[in-house]
Design goal:
253 residues, alpha/beta, Rossmann fold, 8 helices, globular
């Protein structure tokens, strides 16, 4: 039965221009030198945080040393072409990936099939999963909330998808002068890592603001952890510095 508390999809939790932009890039997701190069480069650091957090918080029973997330049900919101869903599947997780961009989902499905991986990809929004009563051990929102018009409304919906005792993991960009200089001027205009207009600085969110939003929707935020870029080695690594990119996990009691 439908949950009467769930509101229909609205523009407060989805920016259609963002969906259209990512749809246009759908065939480029797995090109490590293309528009999604930054996500390929940042991937190992993000995956390390996700793996370590889920092992610590959920204590899954690993079937082999490599499959440390065996049986953990994970929802990847804004999954894109599957850059996170595929490696987590290889670690044993049972993955569902959703994205409102239908062409992006088609690209993700095709790539997973080529790799022989079983991933439940759906061209849909979080509201639809809440409406059907689905919950997960973990919900990922990676590089998503900085593209959402109303973060509080979005997190209120997403929080319903985390089962009691489960976790939400987010990665996003802090709203600082440093992030404006590096994530917008540097990444979009100087280094051309991203198409101009990919980010809007006023949608970046500070860790303390994100923690307050999470608390307001019934989740307990854990300390944020930064991801920093080393230009000399062209690598990203986890660090204490949250001035630009950072990750945060939150528990549902």
């Amino acid at each position: 039965m439908a949950n009467p508390s769930v509101r229909p999809p609205s523009s407060s939790t989805l920016d259609k221009s963002e969906v259209d932009r990512f749809n246009a890039l759908a065939q480029q997701w797995w090109d490590p030198h293309g528009n999604f190069r930054p996500l390929h480069k940042i991937g190992p650091a993000r995956l390390g945080f996700i793996r370590d957090t889920l092992v610590a918080e959920l204590a899954p029973r690993a079937t082999t040393p490599l499959r440390v997330l065996s049986g953990v049900r994970i929802l990847d919101i804004g999954c894109g072409g599957g850059l996170v869903a595929e490696p987590l599947t290889r670690l044993g997780a049972v993955m569902t990936g959703i994205d409102p961009a239908a062409d992006t989902i088609s690209a993700a499905q095709a790539h997973a099939a080529e790799q022989g991986l079983s991933i439940d990809y759906r061209a849909t929004r979080a509201e639809a999963l809440v409406e059907s009563g689905e919950t997960f051990d973990a919900v990922l929102c990676l590089e998503v909330i900085e593209h959402v018009p109303d973060v509080r409304a979005f997190l209120g919906i997403v929080a319903e998808l985390v089962r009691p005792g489960g976790v939400m993991i987010l990665s996003t960009i802090n709203r600082t002068l440093k992030s404006y200089a590096l994530a917008i001027i540097g990444a979009e205009y100087i280094l051309c890592w991203l198409p101009v207009g990919t980010h809007q600085w006023d949608r970046f969110i500070a860790p303390e603001e994100l923690a307050r939003h999470l608390s307001a929707v019934g989740l307990e935020a854990l300390p944020a952890e930064g991801i920093v870029f080393n230009p000399l080695e062209d690598t990203w690594s986890r660090a204490a510095d949250t001035g630009v990119n950072y990750l945060m996990a939150a528990r549902r009691p």
